[in-house]
Write a structure and sequence with these properties.
The protein is α/β, with parallel strands linked by helices and about 350 residues long. It has two domains: about 1-105 and about 265-355, Isopropylmalate Dehydrogenase (3-Layer(aba) Sandwich), CATH 3.40.718; about 120-260, 3-Layer(aba) Sandwich (Isopropylmalate Dehydrogenase). It has twelve helices and 14 strands. Helix 1 (about 15-35) runs parallel beside helix 12 (about 345-355), helix 8 (about 225-235) runs parallel beside helix 9 (about 245-255) and helix 10 (about 295-310) runs antiparallel to helix 11 (about 315-330). The chain is globular, with a radius of gyration of 20 Å. About 50% of the residues are buried.
Length: about 350
């Protein structure tokens, strides 16, 4: 029996509700396929601030480093919004954890399930068949550049620095090109090269890598504002998208609406020895504690964990197939509810998927 050690970080808000459902599914997979998953919980985010005074305790970072993979829920909430930017859970825990583990690539697949075509706010003919993946660079850009505020005339001056280096761009682009070769062989590199010097370096670097190593892959460049529009106009044109940190953050939230709900968008953060898996959504404090949260993004993130960290492709597909079955049978959490569908809560949805794995 293979043994896998998983660091489990529920975090804040709905994180403590959705992560147990992914664990429930993984336990069933372990029983069915003869694997032993050992789950060890750690503190992170606002919960860690309240408990020990810091958003990412050293014990949590060490737990993650010593584990085979990390499963994260969500961090942040109104309770901690008054803290300085660098001390808020989103920056002080999530960004710090990605950096501490060397996770430079965030992979966010965007797939429109046939059963959810009507759940999107867009017309069915626009989104039916959408299957794309976004590779978002994670450790550079505005989020990690120098930040400062200082007095200026009658107010203040605020500065956020956007920095990228050639090696940072090359490594994320290389992953995107390699992924495209396994898919439909097309990469869309998204930047703002008509305005930003960092984007001009991005475009030049991606183009050079394409010519030297991946000339068999189709490459197109697209400005980020046009890409945001094209997501709504004609999303079927996309296969693999590669972009910098902030652009990827914004575009993937927009892309989640193609699927009907951000509660359907999983993600994997890779690049270091230990990878991290989490739903793309936040802590949703408005519905926390009410069993209304959609756990499917977290459950599919667990499938990605099996695929990317442990190369358990059959097991990953078993989870994904179970999700399709549950949706085809008409079960929905509130974010996806349509007339004539069956409303279930967070725990019930997790159980339904587990039973079909």
């Amino acid at each position: 029996m293979a043994k896998y050690n998983l660091a489990v970080l529920p975090g804040d808000g709905i994180g403590v509700e959705i992560v147990p459902e992914a664990i429930k599914v993984l336990e069933i997979i372990g029983q069915r396929f003869g694997h032993q998953f050992v789950f060890t919980q750690g503190l992170i985010g606002g919960a860690a601030i309240d408990a020990v005074g810091v958003a990412l305790p050293e014990a949590t970072l060490e737990l993650c480093r010593q584990s085979d993979a990390v499963l994260l829920g969500a961090v942040g909430g109104p309770k901690w919004d008054t803290l300085p930017a660098r001390e808020r859970p989103e920056a002080a825990s999530l960004l710090a954890l990605r950096k501490g583990l060397g996770l430079y690539a965030n992979i966010r697949p965007v797939q429109v399930y046939p059963a959810l075509v009507q759940a999107s706010t867009l017309k069915p003919e626009v989104i039916r068949g959408v299957d794309l993946v976004v590779f978002r660079e994670l450790t550079g850009g505005l989020y990690f550049g120098e930040k400062r505020r200082e007095p200026f005339e009658d107010g203040e001056l605020a500065v956020d620095t956007l920095i990228y280096t050639t090696p940072e761009i090359e490594r994320i682009a290389r992953l995107a090109f390699a992924a495209a070769r396994r898919r439909r062989n097309k990469v869309t590199s998204v930047d703002k090269a008509n305005v930003l010097e960092s984007s001009r370096l991005w475009r030049e670097t991606v183009s050079r890598l394409h010519q030297s190593e991946f000339s068999d892959v189709q490459l197109e460049h697209m400005y980020v504002d046009n890409c945001a529009m094209q997501f709504i106009r004609y999303p079927l044109q996309f296969d693999v998208i590669v972009t910098e940190n902030m652009f990827g953050d914004i575009l993937t939230d927009e892309a989640s609406m193609l699927t009907g709900s951000i509660g359907m968008l999983p993600s994997a953060s890779i690049g270091g020895k230990v990878a991290m898996y989490e739903p793309a959504h936040g802590s949703a404090p408005d519905i926390a504690g009410q069993k209304k949260a959609n756990p499917l993004a977290t459950i599919v993130s667990a499938a990605m964990l099996l695929r990317y960290s442990f190369q358990l492709e059959v097991e990953a597909q078993s989870i994904e197939t179970a999700v399709v079955k549950v949706l085809d049978e008409g079960f929905r959490t509130g974010d996806l509810l349509e007339p004539d569908k069956i409303l279930v809560n967070t725990e019930e949805m997790g159980t339904l998927v587990a039973e079909r794995c």
